[in-house]
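Project outcomes to date are best conveyed with an example. Our students and postdoctoral researchers have been running inverse folding experiments weekly, and each run begins with a structure described purely in tokens. The record below, which covers 488 residues, was selected by the lab manager from last quarter's runs and is presented without edits.
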């Protein structure tokens, strides 16, 4: 299986140039994915591993192709002959060179090794696909984590501003004697708490921003927020068993385990070939030269001599007994085959469970979004009622503060729930093995255009009424009249 074409570096360079030329422009999800694909170390490692696996497969194929080698040598020989008391000393040079070639005719182990190499290369490509799916999920999670942190900070600041207005109203009412000092102290406590929450939210946003920058290899990334109002997509199909069937069939982990089982079976078959013969076709062409003559030729021992020879033949090698090494190797591979089969069963069960959990997580998230949307409307109505009750004297300041906190917390939870649903849909497709980068396109269309910034997801379309500033009505005399303890 050929390796996929590598993404040109020009795409990454264009993204980097865009980020440098216009640092204030927000990036979409697809833009940051392109940058992460060319920067993420895990994805680059999986890509290099796939290339190495393909190279190993090509190496295994070499065992079926001809082998040709050149052999050459030079020797200086000293000859001492003693015949019937006559001693002859002679030295001469010998030069030889030969070309030797062989072609495997019957080597079943080499063919099985090539099949294993091809299967291993396919498994590496599947692993690369799984790493790409994981990159999509990790990027989306980091992207929406930043947006959620921005929404949390916006909510906290809005709550702080509302509490500040309520604090000023409580102080004015206390100064004119229409409220107790408890109202001011309660509002001050809520204001201090909101200030602390603002500091924590700012730090959380900073950490989430750094995590996204590290993932994509850019500095100062600005994710585009979701456009409002938003309609969240539903998982299709709505049957969890269909998703589980897809996961068991095509999840990268299951495919890798299935390929590992195939490789283990091939290893067993290769081990059983240990008792089979091997047949090779061998061809050789060589030449031997004696520049000072060949002393073995009595007629002309000092004349230059050259000898050329060529040969072709078939070599048979048949191992008869190897000390039970082949039998023990077969036993080992059979056990490894059982292990690979068990690993496949475990992978199928794991992805099935993960797919069910992801599916029901999306269903639960959609239900939470609907419930929080209703809770937001109810909280807004409750806040308006408490502020009206505070104006007419049937509610006290703490009631208004509690209603404000509940409303803004609901808005923060609603924004977080929407992001979790979008990421959960991607995790569901990842669990079923169907996630591809194109799945980011529908989510990318939900983002607000940078030319017209959208209202943060945590902000409501309905404005919160301003804090009540009028004095409580005279009918609520106990609430309006400061007690002696409060006056102190």
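After processing, the design step wrote out the following sequence:
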């Amino acid at each position: 299986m050929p390796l996929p074409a590598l993404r040109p570096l020009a795409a990454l360079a264009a993204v980097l140039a865009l980020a440098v030329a216009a640092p204030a422009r927000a990036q979409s999800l697809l833009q940051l994915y392109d940058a992460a694909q060319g920067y993420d170390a895990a994805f680059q490692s999986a890509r290099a591993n796939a290339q190495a696996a393909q190279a190993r497969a090509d190496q295994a194929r070499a065992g079926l192709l001809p082998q040709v080698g050149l052999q050459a040598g030079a020797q200086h020989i000293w000859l001492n002959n003693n015949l019937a008391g006559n001693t002859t000393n002679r030295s001469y040079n010998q030069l030889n060179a030969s070309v030797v070639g062989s072609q495997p005719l019957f080597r079943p182990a080499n063919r099985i090794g090539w099949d294993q190499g091809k299967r291993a290369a396919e498994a590496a490509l599947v692993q690369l696909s799984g790493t790409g799916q994981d990159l999509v999920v990790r990027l989306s999670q980091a992207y929406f984590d930043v947006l959620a942190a921005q929404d949390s900070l916006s909510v906290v600041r809005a709550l702080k501003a509302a509490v500040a207005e309520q604090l000023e109203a409580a102080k004015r009412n206390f100064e004119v004697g229409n409220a107790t000092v408890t109202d001011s102290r309660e509002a001050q406590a809520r204001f201090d708490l909101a200030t602390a929450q603002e500091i924590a939210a700012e730090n959380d946003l900073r950490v989430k921003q750094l995590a996204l920058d590290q993932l994509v290899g850019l500095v100062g990334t600005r994710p585009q927020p979701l456009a409002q109002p938003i309609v969240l997509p539903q998982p299709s199909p709505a049957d969890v068993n269909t998703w589980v069937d897809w996961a068991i069939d095509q999840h990268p982990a299951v495919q890798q385990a299935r390929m590992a089982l195939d490789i283990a079976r091939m290893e067993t078959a290769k081990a059983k070939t240990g008792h089979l013969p091997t047949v090779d076709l061998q061809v050789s062409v060589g030449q031997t030269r004696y520049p000072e003559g060949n002393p073995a030729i009595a007629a002309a021992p000092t004349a230059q001599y050259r000898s050329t020879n060529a040969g072709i033949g078939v070599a048979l090698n048949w191992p008869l007994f190897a000390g039970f090494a082949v039998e023990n190797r077969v036993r080992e591979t059979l056990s490894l085959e059982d292990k690979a089969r068990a690993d496949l069963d475990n992978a199928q069960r794991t992805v099935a469970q993960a797919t069910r959990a992801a599916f029901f997580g999306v269903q639960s998230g959609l239900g939470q979004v609907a419930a929080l949307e209703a809770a937001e409307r109810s909280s807004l109505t409750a806040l308006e009622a408490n502020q009206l009750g505070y104006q007419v004297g049937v509610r006290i300041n703490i009631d208004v503060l509690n209603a404000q906190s509940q409303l803004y917390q609901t808005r923060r939870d609603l924004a977080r729930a929407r992001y979790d649903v979008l990421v959960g849909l991607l995790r569901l497709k990842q669990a079923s093995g169907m996630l591809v980068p194109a799945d980011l396109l529908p989510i990318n269309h939900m983002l607000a255009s940078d030319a017209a910034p959208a209202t943060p997801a945590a902000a409501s379309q309905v404005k919160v009424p301003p804090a009540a500033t009028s004095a409580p009505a005279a009918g609520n005399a106990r609430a309006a009249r400061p007690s002696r303890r409060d006056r102190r």
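The CA atoms of residues 41 and 215 lie 9 Å apart. The first helix runs from residue 9 to 21. The training component of this project remains on track.
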